[in-house]
Amino acid sequence: MTGRVHLALLGQVAQVTLSHPGKFNAMSRAMWRELKTVFVALQSRADVRCVIVVGEGGHFCAGGDIAEYPDFRFDEPALRGFHEDDVWGGLGAMLACDVPMLAQIEGNCMGAGVEMASCCDIRVAASGARFGAPIAKLGFPMAPREAALVAREAGAATAREMLLEAAVFDAGEMKARGFLNTVLPDGTLTSAVLARAQRICALSPQAARLNKQALRAAQGAPLSGDAGAYRYADSAEHREGIAAFLAKRPAVF
After folding, report:
1. What is the architecture, at CATH level 2, of domain 4-186?
2. Mean pLDDT within 45-70
3. Which H/E stretch holds residue 101?
4. pTM of the predicted model, to two decimals?
């Protein structure tokens, strides 16, 4: 099963649900492509005034679907295509969407989860949520535009700890560092986020879209990539990190 990205309408609120049962909603290539399709469509819908991004089954997203990685990660052009077309296709569509977006975060929010949350305007988490990007354990870096996005939204110091130390933070710490707007007790998240979305829906949708455009412009130049960023594709550390994860053993670098 490759997972799905589901779109449901709750009146003027669109709910985008990440669903990959048994994998804490880890993002497959198919899911990244669906994410792009969903947000491109939402951008043109006048009947949608707010979007909630949520994970299924008590978790937001545990990262990428590592079981797929041996199929393409060790070839530089294929690896570049994955990050620049699939992953950034989805993230770019989220960033370009002018509809206000709320991230409803519980459980694991790792790697790709942090990246998608970084695309949202307002981030609300349950107190038990955990955040990180421990991909150094897998022998590969975060792609340049993805790292820049996380550093911009979570802060450079937090991004460095996540990427260089494989640090994992709880919701309270991420609130203190400015990444989260609100932290709520476990079990109260769904109703609180929906109420917040409904408050947004009661406001001017034109003003919301124009405000998002202005805020995006204020951030300056768009995030850019690096043509040589994927030369590590066939490296021994890259292969070892992924092989170790799939074999459920410690990696030896």
Report:
1. Alpha-Beta Complex (3.90)
2. 97
3. strand 101-105
4. 0.93
